[in-house]
Amino acid sequence: MKAYLNLKSFRGESKVSSWLYSITRSECMNFLKARSARSDLVEEELLEGLPAGDGSSPDRLLEREGSARIVRALLDQALDEIEKRVFTLHYGDDITLEVITRLLGLENRSGAKAYIVSARRKLSRAIREWKAREQALNG
Amino acid sequence: MKGDAIVREREFLKAALAPSDACATIEQLSGLSDASLPEPVRARISGHVTTCQRCQTEIALLKKFESAAAGPDEEGAASWITARLERQFEQITGAARASSQAGKERKPWWRRLFSFRLLGSRPVTAAAFALALAMLLIVLNLPLRNTREPALSPDVGLTPPVFRSDALAVLGPTGDLEEAPTELRWQPAPDAATYSVQLMEVDRVELWKGESSKSSLSLPPAVRARIVPGKALLWKVEARDASGRTIARSEIQRFRVAIRPPRPAK
After folding, report:
1. Do residues B74 and B134 touch, judged by C-beta distance below 8 A?
2. Candidate from A4, A38, A45 with C-beta closest to B85
3. What's the Rg (C-alpha) of chain B?
4. Is the pLDDT assigned to residue B76 strictly greater than 80?
């Protein structure tokens, strides 16, 4: 319906499929943001020791940005491709695990939950190892 | 508190995984796979994508979207959507294309629609539309059980003729708000028996409508829950007399709940 209503805005500068994908994606995200997606996983704290505060002062902001870079690098190194996608969609876009399972067509028994659990475990281990290396270097 | 730490961690991960300025647009990601991007841009985007989970995830979803096939439950609805899109395409692209095709063998509607190339684009298949629908259904969690045509909202398209005797003055909400409004208010119109209120997305698609005999109408909790910070919404009200005739109508109002800055750390 959105594509139908916005067809006149299609300028032919991109492929029809990517234009349609943009509209669909945006609609899905708007809907999901209106619905809380944070209640489907009981969690333990994952980033112990990394500053994950709100960046309310310049020092904290720098710490936070540094931590974000470290976490992105560790995610890239430690997770496999499906784990990265599940992690990004769940934590980056607030998409529920049930929706991710269907969106990515995951056919294992517990779907995206299995991938998020294993991704968290790997990230947690990677953070611990990174901290140990940092402590050894500094200390 | 452990709960607070988990919430902060969630917010941190969300920010860490949010798209950066270096992230590619969907058109660029799409161009990466079919070699339609100019070389300097292509090199920059390729370099970024190899280390960016966000862009890698987007490419995976886009590829899945482009290569999907319609399920049996989705074919009817996909056909309905594509038929209407085709009609719109023809209106936009005009008579030139129609006349150039005159005399040629008439192809099936779906082939005519998707064989239409635009500035280097390659044709897509009906599957893209089917997957667009499937994605929406997945997100909305609404299994499609029948293929009846969805009804078009009566306000989509041309506005029906209304003989207005006066404009209806609106009291609120309008503009930027601190929090989601609980009700919609306007000035009473003489001789009005009922008021019909419509809440819409910014593209005028109806989100909710209600009726009232007073000059205000409360928003149900389910509707308030859909008023999220940063998202603009529109609304309008019409006054009707006892016979149901529209006697006054407001201008379309726009409002948005402001996005709050993050709370300082404890």
Report:
1. yes
2. A4
3. 24
4. no
> Which chain B residues touch A41 with a CB distance below 8 Å?
none
Question: pTM, whole model, 2 decimals?
Answer: 0.50
A38-50+63-139 adopts what CATH topology?
Answer: Arc Repressor Mutant, subunit A (1.10.10)
Residues 115-134 of A with CB under 8 A from B: none
- On the question of pLDDT at B22 being above 90, the answer is no
Cα of A135 to nearest chain B Cα, Å: 23
Confidence class of residue A35 from pLDDT cuts 50, 70 and 90? low
The one-character DSSP state at B95 is H
Domain ranges of chain A: 1-36, 38-50+63-139
pLDDT of B217 reads 93
Q: B136–A92: do the CB atoms touch at under 8 Å?
A: no
Contact of A135 with chain B, judged by CB distance below 8 Å, is answered with no
List the one residue out of B57, B11, B19 whose CA is nearest residue A47: B11
- In whole angstroms, what is the distance from residue B247 CA to residue B26 CA? 47
Instruction: Chain A: give the shortest CA distance to residue B213, in Å.
Output: 30
Q: How confident is the model at residue B148 (pLDDT cuts 50, 70, 90)?
A: very low
